[in-house]
Amino acid sequence: MELMHGTLDALVLRGLAWGPKHGYAVARWIEESSGDTLVVLDGALYTSLHRMEEKRWIASEWGASPTGRRAKFYRLTPLGRTQLKAEAQSWTDYVAAVARVMQTRTQPA
Amino acid sequence: MTDEPRWRRYLRFWRRSVASDIDDELEFHFEQRVQQFVAAGASREEAVARTHAQFGDERSVRSVLMGIGERIAQRDDRAGARDALRQDINFALRSLRRTPGFSAAIAATLALGIGANAAIFSLADRLFLHPPTGVADPSTIHRLYVQSNWSVGSVWEVRANFGYRAFAALDSALAPRAQLAGYTKVDSMSMGDKDNVATIRGSYTTADFFSVLGVRPAIGRFYSADENVMGAGVLVAVISDALWHRHFSGDSVVLGRTITVARQRYTIVGIGPRGFTGPDLDAADIWLPLGTLPLPKIGNREWFESWRSGSILRVAARVALGTPDAWLSTVGTTVYRRGELAGVSNGPDTSATVLPGPILEALGPSIRPAPEVAIIQRLIGVTIIVLLIACANVTNLLLARAISRRREIAVRLALGISQRRLIAQLLTESLILSGLGGAAAIVAGAWFGSVLRAMLMPRTHFANAPLDARVALFTLAVALITGIAAGLAPALQATRTELTSALKTGAREGGGHGARLRTTLIVSQVALSVLLLYGAGLFVRSLSSVQRIDLGYDTKRLISATVDFLSSDGPYLDRTPHRDELAAGLAIAAEQMKHVPGVEETALATAPPLGGYAMVGLYLAGGTRAPRINDLDPAIIAVTPSYFATTGMRLTRGRLFVDADATGAPVVVVNETTARTYWPNADALGKCVFFFAETAPCHTVVGITKDSHMGDVIEKPAVAMFLPLTARHPFQPAAYLIVRAAPEHVTRVSEEMRRSLRRILPNGEPPRVRTTANLLEPQLRPWRLGASLFTAFGVLALVVAAIGAYSVIAYSVGQRAHEMSVRVALGAQSGQIVQLVLSYGLRVIAWGIVIGIAAALVFSRVVASMLYNTSTHDPVVVTAVGALLILVAVVASAGPAWRAMRADPAVTLRAE
Fold it and tell me: DSSP alpha helices (H): ranges in B496-573?
């Protein structure tokens, strides 16, 4: 399933909500939690990460990966946390609205 | 990466590059993916291929990431710099607060140095930089000057004045490329009627004056050419915005009202724009058509019909773009010389040259600038020297402190702070100090600037307040430069610390290099202040020589008075028809004044002391015409017998007049110069002189008086002769009443004279009463100004240098406290300790004195033209300045010496 435009940022923020992660870990988290149904190109993922770093939604730090390798870890900033809440809310509203429309039984006038 | 800016490449040295960060991040990602796929059972080649497929277009992603990375890196750099600056400022403020006395001393020193410059800047700005307010496009306006050699001897003279015919000739010759305006120098004029007179300052102008300057009226209109026909001008006036507010309280119905100026009734037709006071430094309140200028005829001709007599017009030319200065000069000169040939019968000036100059008067091609301008020019140099002294002082204080902070700095270096950062921190400190000094300087400079304005340029309109954005900007710029200049050397010195030695020795030892630099600075400070004090000394000497000039009168006691009468021909003064009425009135007034308390003596004369005289042809025995000396005609004044006692003129030989001389044989009293010049090898007494013609009756010389000045404080000796006031010859009747009063009563007696003359001569104009001191004041003013201003700055420099000398001596004593304690412990007497300290202070200051005086002897040439009868190599000034500085050295050393003497060696040695 292709990702809808504009939702990748929200997914990445959600992934980082659990704690600092490097890019590969974020990618894996999205794949696993979607049951491998969402297709995200890794290039797009890194672009999203870096853009959000520029917007100060997330901050990065170099650290050691669990395997001892040098890796770049991202974490949410307070600004990013606020953003995540807003994205999550608007996604819920969007889904609810679409669902209401899809489930409606009345004939259009 | 070829488009990478060069500075970024240098940045690499201490920051990882964006590209390598991306490389590392993605490399890690690829490895993890490959491992993941291999673990899922793929071959290595398959895993790599899938990893790349999963990633997408790697090149375009990389380039996007690079762009983002660069932006983030730049942002971080800026934030880092901001943080560092904030830290530096906090650090500097903390360390300055720890030593409030030290910080205040530095800020105050800088405030004085920078403030002096700010004050002078506001004057120099108006003189040399800022064109007159309201004049449009000032760069295309030129003033015209004429350089001639028709004045005294071979001295070439540059004048700014032209006769009306010369102006008219130039105007038509230079049109249309240059449009000319003529106007008279701004002068005092009476405003109002007979007994209700105020003084305003105004100028008579041609009708083009306003259009040439590009000025538009704020209200109403300016006068037209029709209203400015020479000899038939219409009495209309344009007043300045300032006069409108001052005198008419900004009333909008002022147009059409009349105003009496210089005894003529003008109708106000317009008001100039706000701030416009004419093109000159002297501000005008009112402008009047030149055609209404009331001047008596010169000979049989109106003043404006003469080529050269009545040269009263300054000329401003609006020049078309691209017109070379040389063209103005060439065409102007040709026309001018032709006019001289045609218009002047007696010695036309065929070598005259017309010169253009800028609108800024002070930059014009004059040979002898106004004394005020000359003073300001020199003061600019003086204030720069004061600033240099302040700078050296601050550098010295900072150096001394940097050295006492050696241990702290060494610790910071050992803890890994970079040198660059340390220098930045130390510079921040000195910049904060200079900023504080600059802020104080703006306040001090504004105050001092307004004092200087009132002293040096009282008649000039300043468009800006003494403190405006320009001055503030200038001040802050000077403060910034000063901060860097004064802080750099100490900062560099401090960071060139040998870590181990600094940590080991502590605060005790000053580096040898630092000590040398400090001594050099203090020597140059002292030398510079010696230079300024020497200059000040010359001005003081010059003023006192001027004041010591024997004018030949008791100037403090003399008051002279006369009454003018309005001519029946026009609105100008002419008392000739009223001379007998005046003489009779003055005689009555003289009698009355004798009974006024405080009056010691009264006399009548044809001219007052220092106020002019008559010149006539004079012949000696044998029919020879008496020669002129010093280019001056013999001065002849007829006086009553009491004249000599009244004025305080002293008799050398022979006798003075008695009442009988008025009717007896003709006699004359001459001054010493006359006796010496006309009868060099014989006794003047008993000799004959003949007035007007060699056939006139003989006037026998009966007395010789000391020389007295005829017009000016500074003048060459002139031949002067005194005759008794009699009805027999043309030197009569009396035109002036001269009263000798006790100095403390001069003001009251002057008032009494005014009232008395007004009562006795009610048909005349208000009496003119002048004390001789009043007459002298404008002449003495430049000398006083020079002496007081240069002294003020000299003392300022001395104070700053003295603070510097004190602090350096005190500091060096502090540094040597350990050594001195050892000496005391080993049995040195307190006298020896004092000697030790004094000898350092005296040695440093002696060098300063020697170098300063050597420099002063060389550079004093620049003030030579402003001195009277004072050599620029004046031994008295050398001695006085030297003595003063030695005194300063002793005073500056006394405190530290006393402290060193009183110090308890046990305490000092234990403290280490």
Answer: 499-505, 512-548
Q: What is the pLDDT of residues B554-602, one digit of tens each?
A: 988 999 999 988 887 777 788 888 888 999 999 999 999 999 999 999 9
Q: Nearest chain B Cα to A47, which residue? A: B65
Residue A39 in contact with partner chain B when CB distance is under 8 A: no
Domain ranges of chain B: 6-84, 138-359, 371-548+779-911, 555-776
Min CA distance, B32 vs chain A (Å)?
A: 7
Give the SS3 label for residue B894.
helix
Choice between B892 and B6, residue whose per-residue pLDDT is larger: B892
Please check whether residue B109 is in contact with residue B438, taking contact to mean a CB–CB distance below 8 angstroms. Answer: no
Structure tokens at B809: 């001596």
- In angstroms, how far is CA B457 from the centroid of its own chain? 8
- Considering only the beta carbons, identify the residue of B33, B61, B72 that sits closest to A43: B61
On chain A, the residues whose CB falls within 8 A of the CB of B54 are 41-42
- Tell me whether residues A71 and B25 touch, CB distance under 8 A: yes
Q: What is the pTM of this model?
A: 0.75
* Cβ atoms B240, B251 nearer than 8 A: no
Residues of chain B positioned with their CB less than 8 A from the CB of A27: 29
B198 DSSP β-pair partners = B191
For chain A, which domains are there? 8-103 (1.10.10.10)
Q: Which of the two residues, B288 and B445, has the higher pLDDT score? A: B288
Q: Which residue has the higher pLDDT, B804 or B346?
A: B804
Tell which residue, B672, B671, B647, has the closest CA to residue B553: B647
Q: Is the C-alpha dihedral spanning B573, B579, B583, B584 positive or negative?
A: negative
Q: Is B31 on the interface with A (CB under 8 A)?
A: yes
Cα–Cα dist B265/B271, whole Å: 17
pLDDT at B511 over 60: no
Complex ipTM: 0.91
Looking at residues B213-220, what average pLDDT do you find?
92
Contact A53 B71 (CB under 8 A): no
Here the tokens at position A80 are 């990013």
List the A21-22 sheet strands across, edge first: A21-22, A70-76, A58-64
Q: How many Cβ atoms from other residues are within 10 Å of residue B474's Cβ? A: 20
pLDDT at residue B830, as a whole number = 77
Cα torsion B134, B139, B144, B149 to 10°: value is: 130
Whether the per-residue pLDDT at B630 is higher than 80: the answer is: no
Give buried/exposed letters for B365-379 (b at 16+ CB in 10 A, else e).
ebeebbebbbbbbbb
The A residues from 57 to 96 touching B (CB cutoff 8 Å) are 65, 69-72
Q: How far apart are CA B210 and CA B227, in angstroms?
A: 14
Please give the pLDDT value at position B911.
63
Residue B605: which pLDDT band, with cuts at 50, 70 and 90? very high
Q: In chain A, which residue's Cα lies nearest the Cα of B73?
A: A54
- Cβ separation of A22 and B31 shorter than 8 Å? no
Q: Helix (H, G, I), strand (E, B), or coil: what is residue B888? A: helix
pLDDT value at position B651? Answer: 93
- pLDDT 10s digits, B818-848: 777 788 788 778 788 788 888 878 888 889 9
> What is the model's pLDDT at position B16?
62
Of A23, A41, A44, nearest to B25 by CB-CB distance is A23
Residues of B in contact with A46 (CB under 8 A): 25-26, 29, 61, 65
pLDDT of residue B619: 87
Give the Cα separation of B892 and B521 in Å (integer).
Answer: 16
pLDDT of residue B6: 47
B170 contacts B332 by C-beta, under 8 angstroms: yes
**What is the model's pLDDT at position B497?**
62
